[in-house]
Amino acid sequence: MSRIVNIAIGQLGPIARADSRQQVVKRLCDLMREAHACGSHLIVYPELALTTFFPRWYMESDEEINSFFEREMPSAATQPLFDLSRELGVGFYLGYAELASEQGKAVRYNTSILVNRQGEIVGKYRKVHLPGHREHEPWRRFQHLEKRYFTPGNHFGVTHAFGGKIGMAICNDRRWAETYRVMGLQGVEMVLIGYNTPVHNAPAPQHDDLSLFHNQLSMQAGAYQNGTWVVGVAKAGMEEGVDGIGGSCIIAPSGEVLANCITKGDEVAIARCDLDFCEVYKRTTFNFDAHRQPQAYGMIVERRGEMLMADGSGVVS
Ligand code: ING
Q: At residue 88, does pLDDT exceed 90?
């Protein structure tokens, strides 16, 4: 019996700084209703889906920064989304800024949750790869201060839900092979990834024309090399003066794109995803237990940066 999950992309267009949580939650509920009408079991929303992408601004006031964070989930503002999830029987992945308390200390994470078809939180993930920078860099058209506003997570987990093994990642995580492999080693069958990705990458503007290509390439590679489904969902369009890529898509374990959005606004795209389809990759080409050689991979966990010779030449083999 095939294990089918009907997946909906819940792509969001821009969220203005002044938009309230209530206004955004209404948009999320509208997308969930549309996904339900298409027979979806699970809808995937973007990273930081409750507010504008605030790391684009340098802020010093804790009060101002914390205004973009959630102290509880669900909260009064987000409860309607959980209620609708339960009413319709549609689960969801939601990215948001989490203000956690650890040993009495406030800790800020870039977080996502997985909610099942009964509206219950069954998984939580905190973004590991925080891109950008920590200090104000006025030379940039806009800032990317995730290293300033968030603490990195340190765990890629897999949750048993929707009849299979579901993993989560957030935005920049999707560019790193380790993200998918750590979950692949846990047998992941579907990786859910929300993102906010500007077309313009200040440190490397020559990449701008390739931003959609790199987005899809990264997720296709992750899917194929680990025999897993990958769902990538954008917060897209011109948001507070910064143009974000779209490119939301559902990728099969073969690496093929099965569905994608065609606008940069609020949009639902759906696909029928058979989790059993992972087997034909996990039991052949990417049968990890049969083919991997961990004794040759030590550098991957022993080093952060590449190892250069004293004169800066290449790595010694
Ligand atoms: N955004 C971007 C991302 O990784 C980025 C940052 C853009 C890095 C382009 C490199 C190139 O998609 C987030 N939020 O991680």
A: yes
